[in-house]
Amino acid sequence: MEREEEIQKKFLLLLNSCNSELHKREKELLKQAFDAACNFHKGKTLPNGDPYIFHHLNVAITAMKEIGLGPTSAICSLLHGEETKSEKMLEKIKNEFGDQVAEILEGLNKISGLRTERLSYQSEAFRTLFLSLVNDIRVILIKLAHRLTDIRNLDQVGDKGGAFVNEIKYLYSPIAHRLGLYNVKTEFEERVMQFENPDVYYSIQRKIRETKKKREVYIQEFIRPIKRELYEQGFQFDIKWRTKSVPSIYAKMKRQNVEFEEVFDLFAIRIIIDAPLKKEKEVCWKVYSIVTNLSSQSQTVT
Length: 302
Prior knowledge:
Elements: H1 2-15, H2 24-40, H3 53-65, H4 71-79, H5 87-97, H6 99-112, H7 124-132, H8 137-152, H9 161-178, H10 182-196, H11 198-210, H12 212-232, E1 237-243, H13 246-256, E2 267-273, H14 280-301
Antiparallel strand pairs: 1-2
Helix pairs in contact: 1-3, 2-4, 3-4, 3-8, 4-6, 4-8, 5-6, 6-8, 8-9, 8-10, 9-10, 10-11, 11-13, 12-14
């Protein structure tokens, strides 16, 4: 009874995960897909003991809340798997949920069954082949949500963890980058490094935390003259900054053969300009020129 309540709460979380308000019919179809998935996986558990339906619910929630997909993709996330691979079942799903759901599930089945013996995940040829197999980009996006769920819950995938990490590292992380899903790409890289080099990862993370106050002071000093110059020239703008990710810093340490303390560009800034669309490029180049000139003057003084 307690687990049943947890499942229902997670389904409610799914309904609240859509970035836009769901229509009545969409809620009904999601409930129908949820009931079907519960029936498929009744009595099954994940390696950590959780109900198997948690995996499908987590994929659906990630697809909507973090990838930005809609209810059709959430329905596919709930229904994907071995149970929906037969032609008979796909025909039944087409009748109950429509052509799009059936086509997306067929695409998911196709890429899941792709044999990789002769192609390396690391090759561009494989990634191109992989992307060419589907007609609907939602197939790839749902698969990204799937692997994001997997790598967040490696204790739930049993002995497949290492294979998933390699697949994410060489296939899904580059695809997320290609599609402009930079938050997803960054999380993939972070979690891959936590799996492969946990000691190095947590050492760098600790050092980032320890130098936070000093870095924040330096960043404010860095952007102060940029702000002043942009204000004086009448630009409407906002400046955001972030500390670079642990994998990015580690890659720089290896590339330059230096220790953490010798990496000086630990942060990145972004200047967001409010400008008319027709003048967007011109304004961006002007701002770029201002930042470049200020950087040159700073280096000269140093």
